[in-house]
């Protein structure tokens, strides 16, 4: 995964987390939590995939 793609995916994750938090403050708490969770998962996946591609040749563990 390139740095550009990782940055885009992480930025999208932040946007989803912010939108989810704003919805969670209002009456749509369940929907907001789901959107926030999707954003969080998107950030984690992008970070892990980027680090794995830089440290292990695209494979987790580097074996």
H/E element string? HH
- Count of separate DSSP helical elements: 2
- Count of extended strands: 0
> What count of structural domains?
1
* Oligomerization: single chain
Shape: elongated
Distance between the termini: 18 Å
Summing up helix and strand content along with how strands pair, one would put the structural category as mainly alpha
Relative helix content: over 70%
**What is the radius of gyration?**
14 Å
Tell me the strand percentage band. under 5%
Overall pLDDT, averaged? 79
Poorly predicted tracts of residues: none
Sheet bearing the most strands, described? none
Description of the structure:
This protein has two helices and no strands. It is an all-alpha fold and 63 residues long. The protein has one domain (3-52). The longest helix has 27 residues, at 29-55. The chain is elongated and about 45 Å long. The two termini are 18 Å apart. The mean pLDDT is 79.
Annotation keywords:
63 residues, mainly alpha, elongated
In short:
This protein is mostly helical and 63 residues long. It has 2 helices and no strands.
Which secondary structure elements does this structure contain, and how are they paired or packed?
Elements: H1 3-25, H2 29-55
Helix pairs in contact: 1-2
């Amino acid at each position: 995964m390139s740095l550009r793609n990782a940055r885009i995916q992480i930025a999208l994750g932040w946007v989803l987390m912010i939108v989810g938090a704003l919805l969670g403050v209002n009456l749509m708490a369940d929907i907001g939590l789901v959107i926030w969770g999707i954003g969080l998962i998107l950030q984690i996946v992008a970070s892990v995939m980027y680090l794995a591609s830089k440290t292990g040749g695209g494979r987790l563990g580097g074996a």
